Amino acid sequence: MLRALCLREFSLLLAAYVVLAFGLANVALVRHKGLASGDFLPMITFVGLFLGLWIWLTLRCFHGDQLLLPIVAMLCALGLTIVSRLEPNLLLKQVIWIASGIGIMSGVIAFPRDLLWLKRYKYTWAILGLFLVALTLLLGTDPSHTGTRLWFSFAGIYFQPSEILKVLLVIFLAAYLDDKRELLAFDVYRIGFLRLPPLPYLGPLLTMWGLSIILLVGQKDLGATFLLFGIFLAMLYVASSRGTYVWGGLILFLIAAYIAYHLSPHVQGRVDIWLNPWRDPGGASYQVVQSLVAFASGGLFGVGLNWGHPDIIPAVHTDFPLAAIGEELGLSGTIAIVSLYLLLIYRGFRTALSSPHSFDQLLAAGLTTIIAIQSLVIISGNLGLLPLTGITLPFVSYGGSSMVANFIVIGLLLRISHESKGQ
Question: Which distant-in-sequence residues (6+ apart) come within 8 Å of 399 by Cβ?
Fold first, then answer.
């Protein structure tokens, strides 16, 4: 049975290899009017990485979910194709980040202890994440000159600590909620229609979450702030099964959004662009307008890879990769990539449901929520359904820290599914 599953996983990985080979060849033929050996170096490296990972997992008799790895490989293949099309100078760096992510993910999978040891150091993980983010306020850099210092720089390599914070905070939330989930179900205080548990049990949870939100708001990192807020509400609901927390959280979010809109010019500008991008199509709304034009130009099957003009969208390889896909691969390509994310999210929640340990259930649900909210926010932002937040499209957008953090998420999900099937 395991051998059959591994062969199915291998056949699905082949599909990702074919997509990347076709994409890189197409880009090279249009750009250089021919093919050179160097054009396929990224593909050879990509195949070697995922094939080596598959062989290693097979030899270890790994029982983890057999669809997670092929889905991630397909998304990475599409991402490399888009980066090659839009920013060829960054292609090698993206391959290196994928290799780094696979290496760290392999370490997560091979770690000899079960994941329950993470629960024992829940406050350590939360404090470490907050410390790294707080450190950027003092030592952070701003390579994109946007006015926000969100990165650490070392030897020309930039890393964004908020990407790691989301993983560490999920580990903390999973551990804390697992310990207090029964107590959080009790009603002690009542404010209107809201029923709250004993505050001493809710206090540490709100403190850690609130500190992370304050730090991210201070950095003007609206995307990470929105992401952590969504993760917090989702995991609180999963742990307690109470809709009261969700409604209360949404009310607090609307109040905070209203205050932020009137106090922060940065937030006000993002919201105004979202409400009416045609007010200043050549200025502040230029990105959004060109994204909408790109989607409209793509039609059903697109204008063809390398034949569109998505490169006129600023930061298209990081903030608007779906717009490039929509123009050159059309509605069919857009639906295909959205379907991949839906399948990835489904498998993540399926992993959570199949785990016999409550901590693993909460951890898998929180990790899957990271992918779900991140995908939803960036896709909606590209389509003009939500304000732009600066979040990257998982495994597709160019970005090193995001790529590594998302591979850690997949590594943890693979470990949870493996341990569940082993038991």
Answer: 97, 160, 318, 392
The CA distance from 386 to 222, in Å, is 12
**Rg of the chain on CA atoms, in Å:** 22
| Residue 210 and residue 256 in contact, taking contact as beta carbons nearer than 8 Å | no
Q: Would the pTM of this model clear 0.85, i.e. be above it?
A: yes
- The CA-atom distances, in angstroms, between 342 and each of 68, 85, 168, 195 are 12, 25, 24, 33
Cα–Cα nearest to 253, from 233, 280, 238, 276: 233
Contact 35, 28 (CB under 8 A): yes
Please count the helices (runs of H) and the strands (runs of E) in the chain. Answer: 17, 4
Question: From the first residue on, what is the mean pLDDT of each consecutive set of 10 residues in the chain (423 residues)?
Answer: 65 92 88 76 92 90 88 95 90 93 93 83 83 75 63 69 85 86 60 56 62 61 76 84 74 76 77 84 85 90 88 87 92 94 96 90 94 92 83 88 93 90 58
Q: Identify the residue whose tokens are 């991949």.
A: 340
**Alpha carbons 336 and 298: distance in angstroms, whole number:** 14
CA dist 397 to 15, 244, 322, 381, Å? 20, 36, 9, 14
CA distance 144 to 221: 14
DSSP run (H or E) holding 152: strand 152-154
Q: How far apart are CA 266 and CA 268, in angstroms?
A: 5
Contacts 24+ apart (CB under 8 A), 261-265: 264/220
